[in-house]
Design brief:
mainly alpha, Four Helix Bundle (Hemerythrin (Met), subunit A), two-stranded antiparallel sheet, 8 helices
Length: 174
């Protein structure tokens, strides 16, 4: 285990909004937590039916398929931010509106297997990205959505975001 991958980010490294996601991640190597999160998702969602995938737990809430594509969308954006900052790009990065993305995703026209394959592929790409970053990149700081953030924090946010949504899925969808 690399020390830079097991160092939990300090609150000065990320906007306070993300503290809950980071708290979801167990101590240890964050890349291992990313891998573990994918394994939890696969086990939890392995036998989900199409009707469960099309289910929203309340009016105006996302379907399970939309939640899963939201996780993939968010992870892509987090990885893009991490890559830009890790490579020394100091351009402020814009925010995004997940509530605009979800209905535009086409999630509900897809099969659960397709949605799961996409989420797994995105997570595999995130693992590869974070595994390959040099140690010095993890402390690089950039700006995303008008707030300072480090690459280290983005890795932990990425891991915690999926864990958060898996908890919601267990409580409200399955």
């Amino acid at each position: 285990m690399s020390a830079h991958r097991s160092q939990r980010p300090d609150p000065s490294e990320y906007p306070s909004f993300y503290a809950g996601y980071i708290a979801q991640v167990p101590d240890g190597d964050v890349v291992e937590a990313l891998i573990g999160g994918a394994e939890i998702a696969a086990a939890l969602l392995h036998d989900v039916s199409e009707s469960q995938g099309d289910h929203a737990y309340a009016a105006g809430k996302w379907t399970l398929k939309e939640v899963l594509l939201h996780c993939a969308d968010a992870e892509r954006i987090f990885a893009y931010r991490a890559l830009r900052i890790a490579r020394g790009d100091t351009t402020p990065l814009p925010g995004w509106d997940e509530n605009t993305y979800a209905p535009m995703s086409g999630a509900n026209a897809r099969e659960m297997g397709s949605v799961m394959n996409e989420l797994e592929s995105v997570r595999d790409a995130s693992v590869t990205l974070f595994e390959g970053l040099p140690a010095e990149a993890w402390s690089r700081r950039g700006e995303a959505n008008g707030k300072p953030v480090t690459v280290r924090a983005i890795a932990w946010i990425t891991a915690g975001h999926l864990l958060h949504h898996l908890e919601v899925i267990q409580e409200r969808y399955l």
